[in-house]
Design a protein that fits this description.
The complex is a heterodimer of chains A (467) and B (468). Chain A contains 22 helices and seven strands. Chain A is mostly helical and 467 residues long. Chain B has a three-stranded mixed β-sheet. The chains are: A mainly alpha (467), B mainly alpha (468).
Chain lengths: 467, 468
């Protein structure tokens, strides 16, 4: 009976326990080697520096490189500095090039230069080539290890090449046929290759009708193509149709996950780096700027309110409905914001028609919901004011009139908030500012200001008519 | 539309019935499917008759199951069931699930026994379980085979099997004994038996495991073909990575949508009416919460009247609490979905961490709030923009303290609420929003009016009492 590994086993925890309590070095080493690099990476992130040292010492460089590939970039950069410099350089060179580039970009300039000097010429060249591609392009995410075959090779020779190189690449399902200038001529499905019989040339079993992407293509688009065409390894070409790298289905999965995480973080006003493994101080530091910004911006809100001091004093009961209006306006703004951020990051808002359509439909949604909720809130607040005799109501300030002000304000505030919630991230995106940087605090403040101006502005107008 | 759209349309319109099959095979079935959907009914009918069942099966795999059912109903039953029999078993199952049960029986009856039994079994797996996305096409080896024999088995079955990155070693009773990576097999030289090449410590999933968990496991460990076993460790099927990627894509969109209180559909298509209705319930709930908050506030009417200036900072308290609550909520919900908090210890550690974060930021923001509001009030009353009924920095002190306290509490609740809901088997992303908002609004207000009211109204008297 083979050993069954269940999903529920907490392997990272096992590793932590192992490092803490297994005192026999040999034992530790052999036990550690049974774990998948992913589990070790998860364990590393909850360990102390000393415990991590033990892991670094017990697993070989190839595995350590795999472990580092699984660690989020920022943390990986931090841990890399815990290694002896030569070992760190070795690990960097054993990792997939796109991952080492990401880590190097998270290091201080002097550290990364130091590492680069220690690397072999060949690795340095690979890293240099990849680092010139901007974030979120196919070039920045591709693997540079793949199996290349020559069109005139015999199948037997090709098979030998495959056997030789198999360990260096992630996936052997797709083989690439290139000419002497590295131009991609076709792809071969491994299935066709193993079924083929000698003698036959590579070019006669290759498929020259294949999908490929360009190094500068947006990564979201590439992921969509990979999913749409069920491509296990998508070739990435440069302007001259030369094969520069491949993006695998596995890479696509990671990108899907990262994109989702980024979208999520943007919405919550969090920086996009993973927060789970940070210490309380590190987390607090990351979240503080957003809160501080919000605090300072809120002075504007207070100013608006202060300017309506007289109205507030005259109809104090208005204050009771203020949180309700702000909550609803804030929420409908967030809903529009969420949909907009998602569409921006999935690259579906590219043409002018798309953008206008999106703005119109978001505003219509706001108006529709504003109408429904405005009516509802008019009715409920009227009832509340009449039945419970909330607040001091007297003279010309009748429950009906107060409820009217509340209802109309909600309609207007909700419509405007929905429009702003979709407009602001798009403007920021146009200005090349990451919508994440500003969306949260700015949207909140702008929503508050508009909603309060509508609410108390309406009430002041009402008072002026009366007096 | 894809870039091949026009070419494909031309082929369909112009190619003779004899060549159309060959011409269309040059394009990816996904592109043909997309084009197919845009064709007139006559053209579609023409294709359904002319194309053979292999190509139709490939095309149908890229159409929605409901569409496929409609198309199948236009074909004669024997061809329709041949198409179903040719599709990958997970796709065929999706289609059969969408077919009316009587018609389903008709299709199944025409199929050969093996396929029928297999599909009947697969239909019973519930949506969202590993069983519903697994396929039963995989390559089986035996452990005492020589690598040469194994290679022959592989060559014989490669064409009809979607995923060949891993080969599965089973005994006579289908018990999974081990797995061999294809790389290892092609590198091995005869004589060598399979047992010496296989890995026995295999990660497997059960047919009723949640597909999101399965997809994440495949992503974490980079598994291209995941074996699905039953309780006795008998192999039931495998899940390919492209299916896992689709699952992950859908599930992450769903999580995001829930968190933003929008519906999943909104991440894909748009109809103003539907979107508006989907977003309405949560807004209605906020209306209710808002009214309760209003009622609570009315009990502090006296304080409000005496210290009108407190009203100016009401949005500040609410916004800060709301924002910190959302931050820790987002971090926690994400941690839950990534299975970070699977035992008591890790949950406790997380809550303590969030508490610390709350204290650090609460103190920092509290001090900042003290100064900004103090300075703000000094300036405002200095220019006689507002009436200076109370000393600006006394009000500042009240604001700073209550913002700090509110911040600590909402940060902790932002972590505790989703963890508790998750323990009680509620979806933390859906249910947390209302809880956090209510807690934030109600607690925030209580803290604010009690602390601030006490400081502004009583502190001067107390100090005067001590002084004199």
């Amino acid at each position: 009976m083979p050993k069954l590994t269940l999903l529920k086993r907490n392997k990272p925890k096992e590793i932590v326990a192992l490092v803490r309590y297994e005192k026999r070095y040999r034992m530790l080493q052999s036990k550690l080697n049974r774990y998948h690099p992913y589990d070790i990476s998860e364990a590393l992130m909850v360990m102390t520096g000393e415990e991590r040292e033990k892991i670094y010492a017990q697993i070989n460089r190839e595995k350590l490189a795999k472990v580092f590939e699984h660690i989020p970039d920022e943390k990986a950069a931090e841990y890399l500095l815990e290694l002896e410099r030569p070992l760190a350089a070795k690990v960097l060179s054993l990792m997939e090039t796109d991952d080492s580039v990401d880590i190097l970009q998270h290091l201080k300039h002097e550290d990364s230069t130091e590492f680069l000097v220690l690397l072999e010429e060949e690795t340095r060249e690979k890293i240099r080539r990849l680092s010139k591609y901007k974030h979120q392009t196919a070039g920045s995410e591709m693997n540079t290890e793949f199996i290349k075959l020559h069109p005139d090779m015999d199948i037997k020779e090709a098979m030998r090449e495959l056997i030789d190189k198999a360990d260096e690449v992630e996936l052997i399902d797709t083989l690439f046929v290139t000419d002497d200038d590295n131009k991609l001529l076709g792809v071969i499905d491994l299935k066709d290759m193993i079924v083929a019989k000698h003698p036959i040339k590579v070019k006669s079993i290759m498929n020259d009708n294949f999908y490929a992407v360009h190094v500068l293509d947006g990564i979201q688009e590439v992921v969509r193509d990979i999913q749409k065409y069920d491509t296990l390894a998508m070739p990435v070409l440069n302007d001259n149709d030369e094969l520069e790298g491949v993006i695998t289905m596995y890479d696509a999965m990671d990108i899907i996950e990262e994109t989702a995480h980024d979208d999520y973080a943007k919405l919550a006003g969090l920086p996009t780096e993973d927060d789970v493994y940070d210490t309380a101080m590190q987390s607090a530091k990351k979240r503080f700027p957003w809160l501080a910004l919000l605090l300072v911006l809120n002075i504007i809100v207070s100013t608006v309110l202060a300017s309506y001091e007289e109205t507030i004093a005259a109809i104090a009961v208005l204050v009771l409905f203020q949180p309700m209006i702000l909550d609803m306006a804030g929420n409908i703004g967030t809903q529009s914001l969420a949909v907009t951020i998602l569409r921006i990051s999935r690259e579906t808002l590219r043409t002018r028609v798309n953008i206008v359509q999106h703005l119109v439909s978001e505003t219509l949604i706001g108006m529709l919901n504003g109408l429904i909720l405005g009516t509802l809130s008019f009715l409920t607040s009227w009832t509340l004011l009449t039945v419970l005799r909330l607040g001091e109501i007297g003279g010309d300030v009748t429950p009906f009139r107060v409820a009217g002000i509340v209802g109309i304000s909600i309609f207007v505030a909700l419509s405007v908030s929905a429009l702003l919630g979709s407009l602001i991230p798009m403007i920021l995106n146009k200005l090349k500012v990451d919508p994440a940087v500003a969306s949260g605090p700015f949207i909140t403040t702008i929503n508050d200001v508009t909603a309060l101006m509508v609410y108390f502005g309406l009430a002041s107008a009402f008072l002026m008519v009366l007096l | 539309m894809n870039e091949n759209y026009e070419d494909i349309v031309r082929v369909i319109k112009e190619a003779s019935p004899g060549t159309i099959q060959n011409e269309l095979e040059k394009y990816h079935p996904s592109d043909v499917a997309e084009t197919f959907d845009a064709l007139s009914e006559d053209d579609q009918m023409h294709l359904l008759i002319t194309l053979n069942h292999h190509l139709l099966a490939d095309i149908f795999a890229h159409l929605k199951p409901k569409r496929v059912v409609k198309l199948l109903s236009k074909m004669d039953t024997s061809k329709a069931s041949r198409v179903i029999g040719t599709m990958e078993s997970d796709d065929a199952t999706d289609v059969l699930k969408a077919v009316h049960s009587q018609k389903r029986g008709e299709y199944l009856n025409v199929l050969d026994d093996d396929t029928r039994v297999e599909l009947q079994k697969l239909i019973h797996y519930k949506e969202e379980t590993a069983g519903s996305i697994m396929t039963t096409d995989y390559i089986v080896l035996e452990k005492d085979m020589d690598v040469k024999v194994a290679m022959k088995t592989l060559i014989g079955n490669a064409e009809s099997t979607e995923g060949i990155q891993r080969l599965f070693v089973l005994d006579d009773n289908n018990f999974l004994e081990g797995v061999i990576e294809l790389k290892k097999l092609i590198q091995a030289r005869s004589p060598k038996n399979i047992e010496s090449l296989m890995v026995t410590d295999v990660i497997t999933v059960k047919a009723d495991d949640d597909i999101e968990d399965v997809a994440r496991t495949m992503q974490n460990y980079g598994i291209y073909l995941m074996p699905v076993v039953n309780d006795k460790n008998q192999l039931q099927g495998v899940i390919t990575m492209d299916d896992a990627a689709d699952v992950l894509d859908m599930e992450t969109d769903e999580d995001y949508a829930r968190f933003a209180s929008i519906s999943k559909e909104e991440t894909i298509n748009r109809s103003v009416w539907k979107s508006a209705l989907h977003r309405l319930p949560w807004l209605m709930l906020l209306l209710g919460i808002g009214l309760i908050v209003g009622a609570i506030m009315s009990t502090f009417e006296e304080t409000i009247e005496q210290v009108t200036v407190l009203v100016f900072f009401l949005p500040l308290i609410m916004d800060m609490g709301g924002n910190t609550g959302t931050q820790s909520l987002a971090v926690t919900v994400r941690g839950i979905s990534r299975q970070h908090y699977i035992d008591k210890q890790s949950r406790k550690r997380h809550i303590i961490k969030e508490f610390r974060v709350g204290i650090i930021n609460g103190i920092g923001i509290g001090i900042l709030a003290f100064f900004t509001s103090g300075i703000f009030l000094s300036i405002m009353s200095g220019f006689e923009f507002i009436e200076a009924t109370h000393p600006p920095f006394l009000v500042g002190l009240a604001i700073g303290l209550s913002v700090g306290a509110a911040l600590i509490i909402t940060t902790v609740f932002g972590a505790i609420v989703p963890l508790t809901l998750h323990r009680l088997n509620f979806d933390p992303a859906v249910a947390s929003g209302p809880f956090i908002t209510t807690m934030n609004d109600v607690l925030g207000l209580l803290i604010y009016f009690i602390i601030a009211g006490a400081i502004i109204l009583w502190l001067p008297d107390v100090l005067a009492g001590i002084g004199g």
